[in-house]
Amino acid sequence: MSELCDLQIHINGQHTFFLSEKILSKYSWKLRKIIKQEKRRTQIRRSGIAIDDFPGGPDGFELISRFCYNNGSISITVENVSLLHCCSVFLGMSEKASPVNLLHQTEEFLDGVFYWSWNEIVTCLKNCDPFFSCAESCGLIQKLLCSLLAKIAQNSDIIEHFLRALGSYGSQNNNLVLTRFLLHYFKTALHSNGGSIRYAATEYRGLADTAVHGVVLMGKTAFSCRGLFWVLRIVSGFGLSREGRAALERLIGGMLDQATLDDLLVSGGMEGFMM
């Protein structure tokens, strides 16, 4: 039994674990390094090693221990993925340690975050609170926040209410930042649907007109001739009104002397380009 529990690990000064050095170091290159350094300095078998600022404290390390003792396998859920991910980053549980590694498993699970529900994303984000600095430094917080923003962007009504609240909807839009945000939103929406136009004109027309009004207002000071052609191609797929199209075309007409042949080529999808 002594051989199976030949390593003492003190976590955050709160709890001591008696574990197998061989089993744990198999999945963590950082633990290997710490153990090797401690063995050079002192009798590790007598004093053990201390790890401070460990994500999740003893609870986090217990999950890591279960992963190691279960041959590199553990059930990953929305509830525990944030803790497991931060622990794996902290201990260097990557391919550098083992082909079967926790970091890859948590990253693979988190790749599906954009398909999670609102509650799942918020739950995962809240669970990061006890180890926020670690979650932020490894990019987990940013990933979760981006997924929340993506959820918001999927609903055009939310964006419309947001713009109205700022007094920047429709002809009231005189903000370049918001205009560029709308254009980026349309571009992202197109890419997420493989470039095909599947939107109801009445649903997105208000946003398209809002973006165009901002573009026309800023005009030559913010957009090149090529940029205006790009704007026309993007917003045309989102139910742009006749008035909005006419205003944008007039602006383009005043800059045609700056246009190149490439600017005049319009993408024809799989069939190449059309004039």
From TrEMBL:
Name the record gives this protein: BTB/POZ domain-containing protein
Keywords for the protein's UniProt record, in alphabetical order: Ubl conjugation pathway
Listed pathway(s): Protein modification; protein ubiquitination
Gene3D superfamilies xrefs: Potassium Channel Kv1.1, Chain A
Organism field: Sesamum latifolium
Pfam family, one: NPH3
Superkingdom field: Eukaryota
PANTHER family found in the cross-reference section: OS12G0117600 PROTEIN
